[in-house]
Specification:
There is one protein chain. The chain is of the alpha+beta class and about 200 residues long. The chain has 2 domains: about 100 residues, NusG, N-terminal domain (Alpha-Beta Plaits, 2-Layer Sandwich), CATH 3.30.70; about 80 residues, VC0802-like, CATH 3.30.2130.30. Helices cover about 25% and strands about 25% of the residues. The protein is built from 5 helices and 10 strands, in the order βαββαββαβαββββα. It has a 5-stranded antiparallel β-sheet with strand order 2-3-1-4-10. A 5-stranded mixed β-sheet has the order 5-9-8-6-7. The radius of gyration is 17 Å and the shape is globular.
């Protein structure tokens, strides 16, 4: 029950159904789509992953509009290279897919749990490499800077906010949070791939 004066999120998707949180580790990709096109994007990404060799990919809308969770048996490289090629050569296959984001870990949305999980990925940033913590949050009262400070405390590497070698990406989606340590170019924007370099 909502407390008196509690803000209502106008874009909360299926929030009143009281869906159980997604079990930790159930997805390894996040896909974003236009609002109200989640089910079309779900069909497109599942079809694309099947074409790339996953016999049983699984995608489902999260509790937030425009955010879809995906589980695939393909490797990260297989997903990234295959979807990039598809976005460039057959973008009509991904009309409702906006971004594809690899996921390393999924935890409950809690600052300490997020920081602890991110710390287990610290060896993904080699000595001499720089990094940045980026937080994208939806439907949470957590403050981005609190998350950034807690996560950064787990990494003993130089920070570069402009051109980092790696990004520690924290995607907060209501009750669950996805964490990735990736190169900046490992997030696929279908439109940018289709338009080509420099667009």
């Amino acid at each position: 029950m909502r407390g008196r004066g509690a803000p209502r999120h106008p874009d909360l998707f299926l929030s009143d159904l009281r869906l159980p949180p997604v079990p930790s580790g159930d997805f390894n990709l996040i896909v974003t789509s236009p609002r109200n096109m989640e089910f079309a994007a779900k069909s497109e990404i599942e079809a694309a992953l099947r074409e790339l060799g996953d016999p049983e990919p699984k995608a489902w809308p999260s509790t937030v509009r425009g955010v879809i969770f995906v589980r695939t048996s393909l490797t990260r490289e297989e997903v990234l290279s295959g979807l990039r090629e598809m976005a460039r050569e057959r973008p009509f296959n991904l009309v409702n897919v906006k971004r594809v984001i690899p996921v390393d870990l999924v935890v409950e949305t809690d600052v300490e749990r997020i920081a602890e999980a991110a710390g287990t990925l610290a060896d993904r940033i080699a000595e001499g490499e720089t990094y940045r913590v980026t937080v994208e949050k939806r439907h949470t009262r957590l403050h981005s800077m609190d998350v950034i400070r807690a996560v950064a405390a787990r990494f003993d590497r130089e920070v570069d906010l402009e051109r980092p070698d790696k990004v520690v990406l924290v995607e907060i989606v209501g009750p669950v949070t996805a964490i990735s340590v990736i190169r900046p170019d490992e997030i696929i924007s279908v439109e940018k791939e289709w338009r080509g370099p420099g667009e």
